[in-house]
Amino acid sequence: MHPEVMAVTERLRARSRVSRAAYLAQMAQAPAGRSGLSCGNLAHGMAACPAQDKDRIRLIDQVNVGMVSAYNDMLSAHQPYERYPQLLREYLRSIGATGQVAGGVPAMCDGVTQGEPGMELSLASRDVIAMGTAVALSHNMFNGVLCFGICDKIVPGLLLGALRFGHLPVVFVPSGPMPSGLANSEKVRVRQLYAEGKVDREQLLAAESASYHSPGTCTFYGTANTNQMLLEAMGLQLPGASFVAPDTPLRDALSKAAAKAAVSLARAGQGSLCQVLDERALINAVVMLLATGGSTNLTLHLVAIGQAAGLQLRWQDMADLSQVVPTLAHIYPSGKADINQFQAAGGTAWLFRELLAAGLLHEEVDTVAGAGLARYCQEPYLLDGELAWRDGPQQSLDDSVLRPISAPFAADGGLRMLDGELGRGVVKVSAVAPEHRRVTAPCRVFDSQEAFVAAFEAGELARDVIAVVRFQGPAANGMPELHRLMPYLGALQDRGHRVALVTDGRLSGASGKVPAAIHLCPEALEGGAIARLRDGDVLSLDAEAGTLQVDAAGWQQRDAASCPQTVRRGWGRELFAFMRAQASSAELGASVFTAGLQDADQ
């Protein structure tokens, strides 16, 4: 093992000693399953089942799998899940088990809500999904769990909820990416032209529709596909299952294999979620995030997931690992390739082999596919109609997409932690060209996305500028993604201006080429220093060094600006006021659960 990976892992283990022990003790005290239910409880739980399923479920030593689904047919990635319950119920019967849909959880599409009021519910939906998962599994009818989820807040939410039932084996079941459409770089080019008024809405809609055009996950390397990559790294998804096309024979075979894995683990009394997701698995997820230039949203989600498992992960851990984990993949927005081209170039199997050989991943871990992460160096295929596994490619099949440790795209993982005058935050440089990583310019301060867009359209930003967008944190407005700003900032940068973004909000996993200091905390609403900035203050962002300096006399003695709107109403936002009031800071996962899960002495 690489010494720094070991050092960070040991530091995480030591920091989490009390909270991890408490979590494992809680899992050891979990109810005994159906054997503890009264006859009335059990009768209710199987009342709607076919007779053959009732005959099995009433036998408490037989495996009954609970399915938690984030299906809806508005999300392209989740539309294929419509047929999963029936497919897997029938398969489970064929192997002497049963399955029930334990419950459904909400699943919103960030692509639909970007720049809209609904985006202010997005991050909160993660914790709602966690609670929905807990409600689904609270019936105590199940010996194992299958989670149907892919996209941005949905996988983290399912995992947060499932970890409260960590005594059970839990297997995630993906549905796969849509076929490649219009190149992501071309889509972004048209977006920028639209922001500049050079193409009309019909041309923009045509480009967007050519990009997002069929069932399946969007093909850029945003949060959804980052989730999938990290589920494999944590051993919670079958090897090579993430990026197989939906509604194909191989996809169906993998879904059945996931169900079989849940049953096998339950029968053997092995592979419980609390056993699989330990500090080594969490570090493996961070390493995979860094090696692939994944979504910055995971700097929030991995912290929250760790806390749910009694593991106190910190941004500094990620930053330290970023110094030694090289960038091996260039997938849009870091490169031009989409996720299908990544998979064709060698995909996850090649990537696992390369990282394991370099000692950057913990190999001796438990997974839903069995012991040892080396299993993930294999890829699935059909042999005479049956699922089989073979070794993945021994070398990259396209070095513009995947490169070996000996010749990486970058020597580090491209993630920096900010810690300075404006607080703490993160900055990602893997998609930012070297010449754009250092920006010094007067700032222009905005309290909303709408104010920024209005200033751009009025021609007020046609200069070197660092846009400060504040009151966008979890307590202020739910921490919506600010991806709407990127076409405008990209247009300014392409005109030759030095530009950057500084915010206590977050960005989409698809954002890239403009340097951005994000997740600043304390946030403006909580008295963060960003609330003391004024138009014209000179800021210096060095994304390489992870520094953010302020050059303005007496700025720290100013009164903090007031939030322009402390009560968010309309579009359901008022229903989430209690969550905004309870949310932890970004560096603690921006979660309503932190107070209940974080060890008091950390």
Draw up the topology in text.
Elements: H1 3-15, H2 17-28, H3 39-46, H4 51-57, E1 64-69, H5 84-94, E2 98-104, H6 110-113, H7 122-137, E3 144-148, H8 154-162, E4 170-172, H9 184-195, H10 201-211, H11 223-233, H12 249-268, H13 273-276, H14 279-292, H15 298-308, H16 315-322, H17 339-344, H18 347-357, E5 366-367, E6 370-371, E7 378-383, E8 386-391, E9 415-420, E10 423-428, E11 438-446, H19 449-457, E12 465-469, H20 474-477, H21 486-494, E13 499-503, E14 516-521, E15 538-542, E16 547-551, H22 577-582, H23 594-597
Helix pairs in contact: 5-12, 7-8, 8-15, 9-10, 9-21, 11-14
Average pLDDT works out at: 94
User: What is the end-to-end distance?
Assistant: 27 Å
Q: CATH superfamily name of the largest domain? A: Response regulator
What do we call the CATH topology of the largest domain? Rossmann fold
Number of strands: 16
Secondary structure tally, helices: 23
- Tell me about the largest β-sheet: 8 strands, mixed
Shape: globular
Residues in helix, %: 25-40%
CATH architecture of the largest domain, by name, is 3-Layer(aba) Sandwich
Q: Whole-number radius of gyration? A: 24 Å
Major beta sheet, strand line-up: 9-10-14-13-12-11-15-16
Range of strand content: 5-15%
**Structurally, how many domains make up the residues?**
2
